[in-house]
Amino acid sequence: MKRNFITGILISTLLLISFSLKAQVLQSGTAQLSIKISDVMSIDPSSSIHAEAVNFQYKNEGDYNRNQNIVRDSYLIITATQTFDVKVKADGPNFIGEGNAAGSTIPVNVLTVDASGNTDLTGATISVINLSADNQNIITAAERGSEKHVTIKYTIPQSKSQSTDILGKPGGNYVQTLTYSVTAH
After folding, report:
1. Model confidence over 13-40: pLDDT tens digits?
2. Fewer Cβ atoms within 10 Å of its own Cβ: the N or the C terminal residue of the chain?
3. Mean pLDDT score of the chain
4. Mean pLDDT across 35-60
5. Which strands, in side-by-side order, build the sheet including 125-126?
6. What is the pTM for the complete model shown?
7. Could you tell me the CA-to-CA distances from 105 to 60, 72, 156 in Å, in that order?
8. What residues form DSSP beta bridges with 140?
9. Would you state the torsion angle of the CA atoms of residues 165, 159, 54, 70, taken in this order, to the nearest 10 degrees?
10. Whole-number Å distance between alpha carbons of 54 and 71
11. What is the helix (H) or strand (E) element at residue 64, kind and residue range?
């Protein structure tokens, strides 16, 4: 009887352990995740192109007798998910005189646009261009990347400031809008 009692306790214990183990079996589930990406070619709103106008000044003889350079760091901050090109163009063939200079023009090709000071543009071909109303590449085949800071140097060479393109024009402000675009290569 003792033996049957011990056997009964043993069987009961094994059954409880078995039920206990079955109760601890974990249920599993699955979840599907996805990542949707889009191609991006952008000039960041915090680029210094949005900050202030580029203003060349010819106030005295020294200004006409030298190259004038204006350098803008982080002028374009570019994010591109593909290899990219940067193009620039003037919105017309001439700088247009305002105020006392109204009716006078200066050809846009007096200005050079130069992105050659950039080291963050791996694989890119950099061109120094004379501005025109045609889209021209200043950066070709730059590797994709996020927040690539592009410095732009604008120059009016002494040879242009001493030519009739500028010299002898009525005093005043001459304006033009430049358009930069980032495109897939």
Report:
1. 555 555 555 555 678 889 999 999 999 9
2. N
3. 89
4. 92
5. 125-126, 136-142, 84-90, 178-184
6. 0.81
7. 20, 25, 15
8. 125
9. 180
10. 9
11. helix 61-64
Q: CA quadruple 87, 90, 92, 94: dihedral positive or negative?
A: negative
Listing DSSP states for 92-128 in one string gives SSEEEE-GGGTT-EEEGGG-EEE-TT-SS-TT-EE-E
Structure-token pair, residue 59 = 């106030």
Closest CA to 48 of 149, 137, 132, 178: 149
Amino acid sitting at position 125: T
Distance between CA 38 and CA 20 in Å, rounded? 51
Q: Which fold has domain 41-184?
A: Immunoglobulin-like (2.60.40)
Two structure tokens written together for 154: 């604008």
pLDDT confidence of residue 76: 95
Rounded CA separation 98/108 (Å): 15
Q: Please provide residue 128's backbone torsions phi and psi, each rounded to the nearest 5 degrees.
A: -100, 120
Report pLDDT for 15. 53
The answer for 102, left when phi > 0, alpha when psi is -120 to 50, beta otherwise, is beta
Structure tokens at 75: 């002028």
